[in-house]
Every structure is written in structure tokens, then in C-alpha cells.
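Re: your question about Holin

S., sorry for the slow reply, the queue was backed up all week. Below is exactly what I fed in.
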Amino acid sequence: MIKPVNVWEAVMWASVAGMLVCAPITALVQQDPTGTWVTLIAAMTAAIAAGGERHRVLQGRGRD
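Result:
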């Protein structure tokens, strides 16, 4: 498993995990397909942000 480069990356990945748990609950319990798609799109956005944060931090470390 890859360790997070900083606290913010860990928070972002934890948020993604939470959203991926909430999406099927929204779909099954509330029977709300729109809410499910919004949750999945938010999870995708957070995953991209976490990847960008990782890239930014690792690029910054290479310059030192």
C-alpha cells in the first residue's frame, strides 16, 4: 500500500472512501439515481484532487 504524502492527501482519500460507501446506500435505500451519480462524480473529483496533491508534493520534493 502506498503511504499518503501528507495529511491532506489522506483526508482526500478518506473522503473518497466515504463517498463510495454512501453512493450504493443512496441508490438502494433512497432509490435516488441522481443522488448516486452526484456522489460518484464527487468521489471521482476528490480522487483526481488527491492524485494532483500527490503529484504536486512529490514534484516539490524533487526540486529540493
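The chain has a mean pLDDT of 84. Residues 23 and 29 are 10 Å apart (CA to CA).

Happy to talk it through on Thursday.
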